[in-house]
Design goal:
Mean pLDDT: 74
CATH class: Alpha Beta
Order of helices and strands: HEEEEHHHEH
Shape: globular
Number of strands: 5
Low-confidence stretches: 1-47
CATH topology: Outer Surface Protein A, domain 3
Strand order of the largest sheet: 2-3-4
Number of domains: 1
CATH architecture: Alpha-Beta Complex
Helix content: 25-40%
């Protein structure tokens, strides 16, 4: 089952496991600890964006440590915690796959799940777009590349 809470980060988060991890992770990266921000806004992406593909922003660096995933904005020094569902979606946002294609891949990988994967992927992508971690691109298809 996909977890629809894509990012468990908030400015007012008490110094718990995620916040402690961020402080130690920032120290390991040699930067000051950045506040954690929420990006989980359940907003639907309009249907006209489905033909575009989400791509990872070049200013974000992806880090995995144990069972946790973070994306770190190298410009603003902001860090966003990604839960396992958001991590999978982040990795699939390569600028070649549309939201529909990502949702289909997830549905094929988890056929027993009853979730509406398209809604989940749209929500995660919208949240990451709002954070600046993703951007829209027009995917280059093999047939288009040879024209």
């Amino acid at each position: 089952m996909l977890d629809t809470t894509y990012c468990a980060a908030r400015q007012d988060l008490p110094l718990g496991k995620i916040a402690k991890h961020e402080i130690s992770r920032s120290a390991a990266l040699g930067v000051a600890p950045a506040p954690l921000y929420a990006v989980g806004l359940p907003t639907a992406v309009s249907m006209n964006t489905i033909q575009r593909a989400p791509a990872q922003s070049a200013v974000f660096r992806f880090e995995e440590l144990d069972d946790e995933s973070l994306i770190f904005n190298t410009v603003t020094k902001r860090t966003v915690y990604l839960n396992p569902s958001a991590t999978v979606i982040w990795k699939l946002c390569d600028g070649q796959r549309t939201i529909e294609e990502i949702a289909k891949l997830l549905k094929d990988a988890y056929p027993e799940a009853s979730e509406d994967f398209l809604v989940d992927v749209e929500s995660a992508v919208q949240a990451l777009l709002s954070e600046g971690a993703l951007r829209w691109v027009v995917p280059q298809r093999d047939s288009e590349a040879n024209i």
